[in-house]
Amino acid sequence: MKIGIIGSGNIGGNLGKHWAKAGHEVLFSSRHPKELGSLVKEAGDNAKALSVKEAFEANADVYLLAIPFKAIDKISELYAGEYFKKVIIDATNPYPERDGEMAQEVRDANYNASEYTAMKFSTALTAKAFNTIKAHHLRDRAFRNTDRLAVPFAAQDQRSQDITKQLIEDVGFDAVYVGTLDATKIMDPEQEIYGKSTSAAEMRELLNEIGIV
Fold this sequence. Notes:
Rossmann fold, about 20% strand
């Protein structure tokens, strides 16, 4: 698959390297793509660096959002013509101390953060994943045959569910389906499964206790 990484920090950078290793075509993006040279070198021949505009124009199959939550509004508006029917994997989190009032409003609303993203990227197919895992675990515990970590995820429809599950498993984590986007409040900061590093069996047990599965 061709994967556009929107935001190439700890989450986007490490996932991009993993996906490139797994054989996917990875497009790292940033407002300053020339600063991504070392990241591209680490990722290898399957990766390159582009501007955010170029990444959206590259017609990727999937886009990973690994940007500050406060950037969602602007990104979704600027590139609305480019992500139609594409899968968007939302790895963002609303942190009011970083993202300001809009993040607090979302956390206080009667919808969750992934539903907010889906509303903004309304012509895309939205999934939620990789927002609950600790960055150093994402970096260090990929491609394991034993002692694998679970990555919980949710999806808007069957296609986004299938693609997200594949991309989690392609890099050596166990995908645990939480449900549709309305079930993802438990994945938000300070909620039940945020920051939990467990096996798939332990994650499913936790979800069962919460009443999700």
